[in-house]
Structures are given as structure tokens and as C-alpha cells.
Amino acid sequence: MIHRLINFLPMSHRALAVAVTAASLAVLASGAGVQLPVAGGITLGAAAYAQDSGVSPEEVAGYAASVLEMDSPRNEALAQINTLLTVTGQDIGSIDMSCTGTANLNQLPRSLRTSVRTVVVDYCNQASSIVQANGLTVRKFNSITAAHPQDPALAEQIRAAMVQLQQSQGSSRANGNSN
Fold first, then answer.
1. Which letter does DSSP use for residue 7 in this model?
2. Looking at residue 156, what is its pLDDT?
3. What pLDDT score was predicted for residue 175?
4. CA dihedral in degrees (172, 66, 158, 35; nearest 10)?
5. Does the pTM of the predicted model rise above 0.90?
6. Nearest-angstrom CA–CA distance, 97 and 114
7. Which of 54, 81, 88, 109 has the most CB atoms in a 10 Å sphere around its CB?
8. Which band of pLDDT confidence, cut at 50, 70 and 90, is reported for residue 49?
9. Cα(176)–Cα(52) distance, integer angstroms
10. How far is Cα of residue 89 from the mean position of the Cα atoms in its chain?
11. How many other CB atoms are there within 10 angstroms of residue 35's CB atom?
12. Per-residue model confidence as pLDDT tens digits over 96-134
């Protein structure tokens, strides 16, 4: 599983993550029912999804839901790792904390290695479960993660799906329902 903690994403991935975060904050701050423009108001049908990216609307929705659900556990993992690294003065950005890159944790002091590795592995296991619960395989999730930086249409579909999910969650909360 290759889901990376956001701070350790390549710059191309960070741009989408920042855009998604900004959209998330705008939706959350404005409340339910906010309509944000999506690709000039154009709605893509299933044929456009499949033709442009090879990713179905259902997979886009599963991916978007997974990314949103991973946000809290990712932030918790980052906070735990930051706390562990604070005492050493180690720069968290210098460490590859991807789910497949834990071998590079060997550059950490021995006393911290196991603790940091445990946090990363726990997060990765949780992220894997989230992905699978949203109807994707880890391989498909990773494929979409790799594809969206080079596919602006796919990136926009993911962003729109995330905004839609956040709006529907906001509406559910406003109506007294919980998700």
C-alpha cells in the first residue's frame, strides 16, 4: 500500500491535497448547501470518466470517500510522529513515511525507530481498511493516486466528488443525522 501521509507527497500530489483541503474548509466554513463551480458547470457522464481516465464514477466516489476518511487518522499519525521527533530535533520532512518506505526510518535514532514505525504501520493498516470499506482494492487506490497528478480531468472529478461528499455530510449533520 502506497498511501502517503500528505506532508510526504511529491509536489504534484500536494497541489491536489492543498486544493482539496481549501475546498473542504470552504464547504465546512460555509455550511451545507454551498454550490462551488465544478469545471464550468459541466457534468461528465460515465463514458467520459471511462474514456479519459479508466476510472469509473464509482471508483472516483470510493477514492474521494477514502481520502476524506483518512484525513483524521493521518493527522493523528502526523501529530504522534511530530511529538516523538520533537525531542530529537529530527526534521519530519526528511523522513519518507510512506507505507512502503519504512526502511528509511533507519536514519532515526534507535530509541525512536520502533515507535515511529508502529505509528506509520498502524496508520497504513487503517488506511488500507478504509480503502477496502469504500469498495476499492489498495492496488486501484494506488493507481488512482498515481494517475490523478497527470490527469487534470480525473483530479477535477475527485475534487468534485470530495466536495459533494462533504456537502452531503454537512446536510446530514444539519438535519440531525450522523454518518
1. G
2. 96
3. 65
4. 10
5. no
6. 13
7. 81
8. very low
9. 39
10. 27
11. 9
12. 777 877 777 888 888 888 898 899 999 999 999 999 999
d(CA 174, CA 136): 29
Residue 1's closest CA among 113, 130, 94?
130
Q: CA nearest 98: which of 13, 36, 6, 171?
A: 6
Distances (CA, A) of 58 to 4, 63, 64, 74: 22, 8, 10, 24
Residue 148 in grid coordinates: 490523478
Residue 138 has pLDDT above 50, yes or no: yes
The x, y and z cell numbers of residue 53, run together, are: 481516465
DSSP 8-state code for residue 178: -
Angstrom distance (rounded) from CA 38 to CA 113 = 44
| Residue 109 and residue 89 in contact, taking contact as beta carbons nearer than 8 Å | no
For the chain, give the number of residues. Answer: 179
Query: Who wins on pLDDT, 130 or 46?
Result: 130
Distance CA 154, CA 133 (A): 21
Alpha-carbon distance of 13 to 146, in angstroms, equals: 9
pLDDT-based confidence at residue 170 (cuts at 50, 70, 90): confident
| 178 burial type by CB count under 10 A (0-12 exposed, 13-18 middle, 19+ buried) | exposed
Q: Locate the domains of the chain by residue range.
A: 48-164
pLDDT on residue 101: 74
